[in-house]
């Protein structure tokens, strides 16, 4: 599997999209820091971008890679290699290369502006970790969509729809249900619902690091108790790991039945 | 060596293989023939484990291949359309396959034979179709696999390379390999194949030697023989 | 300052030559005895040592000076000092073990009808009430340190508590871990300056029914709420720092039913709600900085003709929040960190008006749990559409001259 991972990774590192992605993050980092050289403020702005963008890039790259690397996959399938090894290797290769683009692309500008000496360093690391989590999750989800749809156009459409669902539609439904059922105690529901969307979960985790005051002050005890404690953070990270593990398992199962 | 029993495969509503059974028990060159869409490629891919059959059994070297991958160590595959990871160079691709198979190969000799030296550092995406096919041939033959599956190996090849390929197939046969080949070039079949497996409507319509086929159809010429095969039995009775 | 102080004491010496020394090895070992012996305007010098003092009543003008190490021990019984005459000076004392009660307002220093009082440089450790001043005028309370160990509201009294007073000067005191740091009820014409109130259970500074007061340059940090001003008029709040007052229902500054006040040049940083206003009218907010608060200004109830101008709003989760569609307040010429407009004529004023109230803040008001969607893409999209065509938020609530650059 390491070999497959290695070659997928090489292949991707050669692709110009990886550089575009890397350059995009680097530019973003520099522009943000140039516009407001306040590191912590730049980190906050970055959060908005990361929780929306990394899932989108993960989704698009995942589905594009799946369809574009069909030949590579077929070549590997005819070799004496296990199927699950091939797909796991490719999945990890893709997720790793995207995560590295993110980490390096943002890391360089922030390092140059002295993030390590700043008190925002913890927030920044949380941010990168969340971005990495989201990348792994959404690459796995989009590979599932790719495996389920031979038709490229359809697959691409579904993938975008999936991203849109988690990034926007889910929150819309979430908010509507909160408003409609406003007469009932909702904090448990809200907590549960946020666990079922990895984007929401990462956003809240970052939010708690960045601007805890507004959150704590208002809805009060439960959120604070849950997310403010180590147990809550542990559970959140656990749920994010599940969000990686389950789609990956599904992907591997699907891959065993797929014809090439 | 290859034992196929009652193989069925459909893609959605389209039934491609409807109970294919045949066996290959000796070395030699076997041509899998049939008209377009008769399921040749699907059959080969099923043997390779790339297509999962709906039911039926497949054995290679005496063992069922379901859920297994080790048997592919003994199979070389030359796909129909030679497309590769685009960002790798020829050299890297060859190295990669060597690495994945974890075996030594005779790639140097084959690269020379097909004149690929000057393309080694080119990206695969920059190569012409014929050159890619040559790379494809190198990849298939560089290991000493006992079974070689070739799907339209001649596509895009220039005459010199075609002659070289035929020589290669001949050499492999003499080494005692089992070679499965699909092609539309009948002269190639006549030149290299010993036995023909003829697929029609998802079933094995005929399996036998060239001579048997000529005998059965009363046609000397292979192309005519095949054309005769394609006509339903009942009407072909003179 | 020191020279002035020295002059001041010299003056007292000239007036009354009487000076009584109190110390464990002196002739007079007991404070009560010293007070009994003293003539009006005498000076009592308390040398280093621990003196049991319970309910010591001072009923004539006296000066009580604690030297270094002078400790009054209230023995957990009752009041410690009771100042019941004009022109009493208390300084340099450390008071411990004042009594605590749930029925009586025991205080370390209690003053009633004591005009021209001076209480300075004292340390009060864990009292029920620290300084409790009633019906006194022209008092000076400065440089005192009052602290408790309180975490619950009902077990604590206030650090400096004044009731029915006027013309007080309360400055340079530090109060922490009490109920309210400084509490003023019916206190008029007073100045509260440069105090530091932190970690108090309820408010750092609390005004009730007090008019014409100024509080300037104080620092309120990590209290239940920074400052509460209720039912008061003509208050000037200037150059104070409200920082890190957070928690559920926590404020930097809470204004309720107050009129004609000025809120100038204050700094609000990292408070859950920087300013909460409820039923306030004719208040000017000028030159304040709102930095990284949950809510910068939260408007509740009928607030009329308030003017918010020349303030900086930076990095707040919500800049302005209304709970109704009604608006009678003006927001002009502020700097808004979220402003995305442009300034073509380069006059430093944005050419596009800014709407500080977001649809999301309206929704959060109605359904608090929706805060969990803060900074999500959906909320951004929703806010944007509301910005384009306001439906739920007050449509006349617009800053037509938003500043392009922060003032501070």
From TrEMBL, chain A:
Keywords: Membrane, Transmembrane, Transmembrane helix. Pfam families: ABC2_membrane_2 (PF12679). The keyword Ion transport does not apply. The chain crosses the membrane at residues 20-37, 43-67, 88-112, 124-147, 159-181, 201-219, 231-252. The keyword Oxidoreductase does not apply. This is Cu-processing system permease protein.
Automatic annotation (TrEMBL), chain B:
Signal peptide: none annotated. SMART domains: AAA. Pfam families: ABC_tran (PF00005). InterPro entries: AAA+_ATPase, ABC_transporter-like_ATP-bd, ABC_Transporter_VariousFunc, P-loop_NTPase. Keywords: ATP-binding, Nucleotide-binding, Transport. One of its GO terms (molecular function) is ATP binding. The keyword Glycosyltransferase does not apply. Residues 2-226 form the ABC transporter domain. It comes from the Bacteria. This is Cu-processing system ATP-binding protein. It comes from Ekhidna lutea.
TrEMBL record, chain C:
It comes from Ekhidna lutea. NCBIfam families: NosD_copper_fam, para_beta_helix. Transmembrane segments: none annotated. This is Nitrous oxidase accessory protein. It holds the Pfam family NosD. Residues 143-341 form the Periplasmic copper-binding protein NosD beta helix domain. It comes from the Bacteria. InterPro entries: NosD_copper_fam, NosD_dom, Para_beta_helix_rpt-2, PbH1, Pectin_lyas_fold, Pectin_lyase_fold/virulence.
